[in-house]
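ok so dumb question maybe but i'm new to this and my supervisor (M.) told me to 'just get the structure for UPF0042 nucleotide-binding protein' and walked off. so i did the thing. is this what she meant?? sequence i used:
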Amino acid sequence: MRFVVVTGMSGAGKSTALKMLEDMGYFCVDNLPILLMPKFAEMLSTPDTEIENVALGIDIRGGQAFRGLEENLALIDKMGIHYEILFLDAGDDVLVKRYKETRRQHPLGGEGHIDRGIAKEREKIAFLKMQATYILDTSKMLTRELRLELEKIFVEGKDFKNLYITVMSFGFKYGIPQDADLVFDVRFLPNPYYIEDLKPKTGNDPEVRDYVMDNDKAREFLAKLTDMMDFLIPNYILEGKNQLVIAVGCTGGKHRSVTLANALHQFLEPKDSYGVRIEHRDIGKDAITKAK
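this is what came out, is it supposed to look like this??
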């Protein structure tokens, strides 16, 4: 039997993950009283049970009984029942935004103070994150990307690393991404904006890509950038980092940054030790601004 405890920050996607696991053939139970966990695990581990895969949702809604979760997990360990912990997380700003969009109150928010509730919850469940088998940061994940990660872990049985990388292009005139861990400025490269035929195109177009990369400085920069990633990423994985945002910026976020971000994403994509996605934050803003 595969026994998965699904937990994490409220608003990070636990309910969505449970529904996805149910679609994948897992027997899912959400918000089981914590005191019943050892009995539940024992019942499911009997030889005659027909249930092969179980996902149990646990979160701060357990109230006062949540304090006993660590003790009950230790009891399950003593019973010799193997379990895995899937911890879903997201940045505080993302969680606040999700709560405001759904107009829900945080379980620990008191009189509508979402940020205070998030801070209290992080403190209470810190031990779970420390014990987690898998940590998924859903801050920048699309629903389909979350499903793919869950399938890799719980259906395909692939090796999983907790680091998820977002390669993002952006325009400096629209501001540096607030959640960027690493920021690279490629405004030193020749700008296709001043070439009449290339101006309306983007770094996703072959003509722009070839123009930007047909330059010794661009090729040398990419070589140094990928060499740095070869050094940094394994060390981030060892350190336990679970979310890395690499931002590549030019003036408008349409030509040079898109080209180099795509090249970096292509370099990172074949690796198996982390998840990776590409995002072009400002690629269409130039056209929108002109239309106004």
